[in-house]
């Protein structure tokens, strides 16, 4: 599934069931004038977002044990 926003962001997520595990792959891309104007801020926001998502996934996985 690919989602696009008017600000040049495209996100693709794929889920793959492997026995009792699920692998999630997320690819994000950014382009366009708004992105070029605020590249550093958007890079920082993306980094924080990814870290937050990974922490949530880790907590959920550890809780499910």
Description:
The protein is of the alpha+beta class. The mean pLDDT is 82. It has one domain. The protein is elongated, with a radius of gyration of 15 Å. The chain is built from 2 helices and 3 strands; from the N terminus they run E-E-E-H-H. It has a 3-stranded antiparallel beta sheet with strand order 1-2-3, with no helix packed on it.
Q: What level of helicity do the residues show?
A: 40-55%
Structural class given helices, strands, pairing? alpha+beta
Average pLDDT figure = 82
Radius of gyration: 15 Å
Write the layout of secondary structure elements.
Layout: E1 2-4, E2 9-18, E3 21-30, H1 33-37, H2 39-63
Antiparallel strand pairs: 1-2, 2-3
Features of this protein?
65 residues; alpha+beta; three-stranded antiparallel sheet
What's the short version?
With 65 residues, the chain is α+β, with helices and mostly antiparallel strands. It has helices spanning 33-37, 39-63; strands spanning 2-4, 9-18, 21-30. The protein has a 3-stranded antiparallel β-sheet with strand order 1-2-3, with no helix packed on it.
């Amino acid at each position: 599934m690919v989602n696009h926003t008017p600000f040049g962001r495209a996100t693709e997520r794929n889920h793959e069931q492997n026995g009792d595990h699920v692998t999630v792959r997320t690819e994000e891309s950014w382009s366009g004038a708004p992105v070029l104007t605020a590249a550093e801020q958007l890079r920082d926001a993306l980094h924080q977002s990814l870290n937050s998502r990974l922490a949530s996934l880790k907590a959920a996985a550890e809780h499910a044990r």
